[in-house]
Amino acid sequence: MLNATYEPINVCTVRRAAVLLLKEKAEVIEGGKGELHAEHTSIIRPLVIRLLSFVKLPRDRHRRKITRRAVFARDDWTCQYCGTGSGLTVDHVIPRSKGGSSDWTNIVACCAPCNRRKGDRLPAQANMHPARIPGPPSPNVFIQVASPRIPTAWQQWLPDLTAAPVPDAA
């Protein structure tokens, strides 16, 4: 779903999109194959819709709950210490026992062997530093988490999204 300004705001079900279309609160930007039929009407199957009126979103709408899948997607499904993509878990860069927080700036994707090797030590003590400084993810990460298989029709509306394949694990 796009805002009136064509900014992606969320992923919704086909049913929700159809309701918005029938209430004339949205328009179809990209249609899929086939139509949706009701007793007295038919509409094109929506893939991308745009709201007709602007919806003001809270500034901190991207300060969402941290989930493993969102951390993995933000970190491109790779361990931030060694670069592998298998056996991922999450790691607190500064361990909680050493005063580290559980927020976007302190959690990274990490493979199990690196997590065991780093243990309860600071990055300097373990000589293990994340490849990228952790921070809040881009808004598109949440769209990728909501729909791991990004349809081709969405690509042009998600310019920052790296179309990396998402494993079925997590």
From TrEMBL:
Keywords: Endonuclease, Hydrolase, Nuclease. InterPro entries: HNH_5 (IPR029471), HNH_nuc (IPR003615), NA-targeting_endonuclease (IPR052892). It comes from the Bacteria. Pfam families: HNH_5. Residues 66-116 form the HNH nuclease domain. One of its GO terms (molecular function) is endonuclease activity. PANTHER family: OS07G0170200 PROTEIN, SLL1193 PROTEIN. This is HNH endonuclease. The lineage of its organism: Bacteria, Bacillati, Actinomycetota, Thermoleophilia, Solirubrobacterales.
